[in-house]
Amino acid sequence: MSRRAKPLLQDDSVAKSKPARPHDPAQPNLPFDPMPERIEPCLALLKPVPPKGPDWAFEVKWDGYRLAIHIEPKGVRIITRGGHDWTHRFPAIAEAASKLGVGTAILDGEAVVLDEQGRSDFGALQRSLGGRGGRRSSTESVFFAFDLLYFDGHDLTGTELSVRRHLLEGFLDGSSCAIQLSEEVYGDGAAFLAKACSMGLEGIIAKHRDRPYRSGRTGDWLKIKCVQSESFMIIGYEQSLTARGGLGSLLLAGRKGHDWVYVGSVGTGFNTKDAEYLRKTLDRLKTSKPAVPLKGKNLVFAQPTLIAEIEFRGWTHDGSLRHASYKGLREVQDNAAVFDMSERATL
């Protein structure tokens, strides 16, 4: 395949990259697959230790926003995990995607902002977007591509990961700063995890090399973390006369089916400005019917709307977060990321 060949348009909706060699008439022409509007993402299942064996490949776990880049003859679309169009929020990534030299493709990956040590910084990504509800476009973000779901008019979700990665690596040659390949590592997952933790990274992802792309948490992809960090719904706060902004702590809940489960509170990680914004916003969401039945004279309950990214060190025996610290707010469109309490059963 020519890395920079201009696409040959087959029709109004499908483009095919120019082949490096003439077509062999003895080989059949594969039919085109319609390009899907959206593919529900494959999600990683939380595990305490990496899997063993040659069937697994490992990658760095990026701390940002999961995105799918749709490259079509009519242009580029950037879709969030929840299915929202965020092309306008990541203009540098969209421009880089338009210059990859492919006709049609869907790239799966993560948008991040890197710190000086090359680590993804979720807080910096949020600031680049103007904070929760902000309208800024992120020019500093980088998209790390780790999968290829559709290419040259063909649906690749039924093929094994090793094949999808081979095709992805074929046109991501490192020439674009805004779109990079998320590198794979083979071998000892435990050693890779230890290295990632020593560098201050969030953790690693393990992927079964022979599996197709399946939506949801199937166990084909696993996440192993150095420090736990998950998204939880804010269901209220505890008032304080002495704490900054009058906010003592945030009340948090995880998802269990269609219900919410209380997982404790967090009172560290936010400064005065954060606390004032959180209290002001939660006061606008006040409700007399808490999402989870709780008692306390200083508790203010809010409609489950704000999603917080929380770093923590584990779980207590009664299901609360240990040593929780606030990292920032996620967008309301990212509500699919709220922690599913059934994941605790896998640990």
Automatic annotation (TrEMBL):
The keyword Iron-sulfur is annotated on this UniProt entry: no
EC class (word): ligase
Catalytic activity entry: ATP + (deoxyribonucleotide)n-3'-hydroxyl + 5'-phospho-(deoxyribonucleotide)m = (deoxyribonucleotide)n+m + AMP + diphosphate
Keywords assigned by UniProt, alphabetized: Ligase, Plasmid
S-adenosyl-L-methionine listed as a keyword: no
Molecular function terms, GO-annotated: ATP binding; DNA ligase (ATP) activity
One GO process term, biological-process aspect: DNA repair
One Pfam family hit: DNA_ligase_A_C
Record-linked NCBIfam families: NHEJ_ligase_lig
Family: Belongs to the ATP-dependent DNA ligase family.
Protein name: DNA ligase (ATP)
Gene assigned in the entry: ligD
